[in-house]
Amino acid sequence: MDAYKKAGVNINAGYQLVDEIKQLSKNSELGAFGGLFALEELGKYKNPVLVSGTDGVGTKLLVAIEAGLNETVGIDLVAMCVNDILAQGAKPLFFLDYLGIGHLDPNKAKKIVAGVVQGVSEASAKLIGGETAEMPDMYTGDHYDLAGFAVGIADKAKLLNKASLRAGDALLGLASNGLHSNGFSLVRDILFKQHHYSLDDRLPGIDQDLKTELLRPTRIYVKSVLPLVDQGLIGAIAHITGGGLPENVARILPENLAAEFNYGSWPVPTIMNDLQKIGHLSFEDMKLTFNLGLGMVLAVHPENVDQVKAALIESGEAVYQVGKLVTGSQEVLIRKD
Amino acid sequence: MDAYKKAGVNINAGYQLVDEIKQLSKNSELGAFGGLFALEELGKYKNPVLVSGTDGVGTKLLVAIEAGLNETVGIDLVAMCVNDILAQGAKPLFFLDYLGIGHLDPNKAKKIVAGVVQGVSEASAKLIGGETAEMPDMYTGDHYDLAGFAVGIADKAKLLNKASLRAGDALLGLASNGLHSNGFSLVRDILFKQHHYSLDDRLPGIDQDLKTELLRPTRIYVKSVLPLVDQGLIGAIAHITGGGLPENVARILPENLAAEFNYGSWPVPTIMNDLQKIGHLSFEDMKLTFNLGLGMVLAVHPENVDQVKAALIESGEAVYQVGKLVTGSQEVLIRKD
């Protein structure tokens, strides 16, 4: 394979990586033509529905690459996918990852995939396959892209359904772990292009340096929220990603309801306030780009609020009653008074 | 969203694209947090197993980008994934795609996804979701990467199993549609770096220009091969991708068998012979990089060979008896005498 290696593709590095991923994931079947997942517990489901999601990490990757810290973007990757599946009321079953990279360095790839393995574990799912594509000339320098695919399952009748929502339902916000994996093109533009911060700098009010703050992994809400879904205590879930509260909460609203958030009823992460100041961002830009501190928003009937809050706190979540559903036409209002 | 747009991310272009993909795929549910797939026909399966695969198109994308012909790489993407699922004996159910792109041009993205929709249709599957990630600074110029994810299903007892293979089983090769989606870093190195061919040039013995020859989409074998799997006529399937016949056929061999191919018993595409000559490739390089004209290899008990060949020809495949299984230790031998 001299010619192929000279052309920039190192097949042996790929094989070495597969062996290492097998060990990391404790799944010796990796490397087959397709990943297998036996639907053994199907008896539990009357009308099983598979719920699938795909996502990437976005340009947060460029921060990880620049910082040389590739250990946690895999957690972000899994989080972006499994939180979407959870938002439908489904239980994540398995995950596959795609790594596109210019030059395959097995040690670096192993660190990336170790993050995926950790994320999959936090989501109580299983890594059953993946692809590492060495693509010289497509990715320049150290660049790589990462895409993930998750599949979950739910009983059709138990999928979260916006028809169950009522005016007066509470909106509970679960604290995000900072920026998560959205808005990074704007973040990088403000910090590194408009201004010339270094990844070792600290922003006002933040103890950690920028690389640590920016790279904090997206929170995975599966273990704390799924049991409440199973108990029928949750009406709907919005996973707050690109588009922020307005776009993502709008997706759970039926035609006759609107969402009202009381700005100030939850803490906005300091990094976002700093970015607003440094970048002279309008609140419009802020709310459509960042999660404003809420990684997930749950719509809950008033009679279930206390039980849901208590259970979430018990699971280690920071939870805030951030607003409510009102009669309307799918508006998402963030009241600042 | 002025700030985000200035930072290189056009959210509205993304929304426009989702609308267009909904129309293309005739799936109005696209755009939800997760794609849904009801397992309605589960009654047919005693012990259902989901089979998943993820893959990309590799640097064939760079040829498509250079040629400005982005309409068929989506077919390649689907083919790479669903042929892997078929290789396990499973039926592809649904597909999701991930498009990472530097600057989102909805018209171009629409062309790319139209290829995905066509591929999914050829595989009798359903496109239930996808992600388009606009990542300025990650992808330079017109570059984009494409990853796909397919899920299929099979009854556990009907998954193809290497234990069913016997010495004397015939190896049937299904003609590839040229290079498919492998070896393109080498192809590009030979044609465009070592030599300075243009995409409009013609190679000896090939009527079409290079861009047409190189971009011919990977063949999707689902419709022709799956019915034979369902009838129990196929012992094992190797999908010939990166690593060629040696690596991919080795994956279907049990410990006590080897595969013997008779080189010359099937036509090697002219493009590969041209590349060997122009690039001074050893046969070793050739066989480990290219499919040598066989996109899929089936192991079939001798008593079923005539029926399988007839059915494949009837389905429009070009099929060749290319070798047989012999006693051995998982060697893959390509006999040139």
Q: Would you kindly provide a written description of the structure presented here, covering whatever features stand out?
A:
Two copies of one chain form a homodimer. Chain A is of the alpha+beta class and 337 residues long. Chain A folds into two domains: 2-30 and 45-158, 2-Layer Sandwich (60s Ribosomal Protein L30, Chain: A), CATH 3.30.1330.10; 162-335, Alpha-Beta Complex (Phosphoribosyl-aminoimidazole Synthetase, Chain A, domain 2), CATH 3.90.650. The first copy, chain A, is 36% helix and 24% strand. Chain A has twelve helices and eleven strands. Chain A has helices spanning 2-6, 11-25, 60-67, 73-87, 106-122, 184-194, 210-215, 222-230, 244-250, 270-279, 283-289, 305-314; strands spanning 35-38, 48-56, 91-101, 126-134, 144-155, 170-175, 236-239, 257-262, 294-300, 319-327, 332-335. Chain A has a six-stranded mixed β-sheet with strand order 7-9-6-10-8-11. In chain A, strands 2-5-3-4 form a four-stranded mixed β-sheet, with helices on one face. In chain A, helix 9 crosses helix 11. Chain A is globular, with a radius of gyration of 21 Å. Chain A starts with a helix and ends with a strand. The relative contact order of chain A is 0.16. Chains A and B meet through helix 1, strand 1, strand 2, helix 4 and strand 3 of A and helix 1, strand 1, strand 2, helix 4 and strand 3 of B. Strand 2 of chain A pairs antiparallel with strand 1 (35-38) of chain B. Chains A, B: It is found in: Cytoplasm. Chains A, B: It holds the Pfam family AIRS. Chains A, B: Residues 49-154 form the PurM-like N-terminal domain. Chains A, B: It comes from Lentilactobacillus kisonensis DSM 19906 = JCM 15041. Chains A, B: This is Phosphoribosylformylglycinamidine cyclo-ligase.
